[in-house]
Amino acid sequence: MYGCSIKETIWHTNVSAASCDLIEDLGYRTLPKILSQAAPAFCMSSCSFVVEKSKESTARVVVWREIGVQRSYTMESTLCGCDQGKYKGLQIGTHELEEMGAKFCTGLLRLKKLTSPLEYNLPSTLLDIENELIESSCKVTSPTTYVLEEDEPHFLEEVDYSAESNDEPDIDLANNAGDYEPCLHEDGLSDSEITRTHLP
């Protein structure tokens, strides 16, 4: 996943068998469809399923063509903000990206359940628990700011950042000036010569 300033929201770019000689498998659209239903910041209409000539050397296309990974995706996120859904008009922040990551993992679980239901018995309650954890993992402090509990460090003592917090007296730098004078006189220079050598 990486940031992009061209579009708004979050979307996938994918490879399509239509852009080569392989038989088309529409299953590559399944994960983006799942994400568009589950993740409020994800936008299916912004997804691209065509390999442009300028993108042929990207990892997504190379992994698909040369290694044979059938469903190779790139997920992109806006640097601007969302233009749809519950985040419309808001900047994408850490919370929204973490939420997208969690919804992506849930989407992979749902994809696995759809593609091989007999092989993989996923209790539906697991998906419900996952969604509850995603929704309850943050506290809303304002409409555009989210504070995750794990973002705040836990200290044993209160930290005071005010300028008046230091009750100790300041060390007088004049008391330390004598430590440097012998160094200057060791070079054999008088005070007037030192002044002249340092003036422009």
TrEMBL record:
Coiled coil regions in record: none
Q: Active-site residues? A: 76 (proton donor/acceptor)
Q: Which cofactor does it need?
A: Zn(2+)
InterPro entries assigned to the protein according to its UniProt record, in alphabetical order: Cytosolic_carboxypeptidase, Peptidase_M14
MF (Gene Ontology): metallocarboxypeptidase activity; zinc ion binding
Q: Which GO terms describe its biological process?
A: proteolysis
Q: Which domain of life is it from?
A: Eukaryota
Recorded family membership? Belongs to the peptidase M14 family.
Q: What is this protein called?
A: Peptidase M14 domain-containing protein
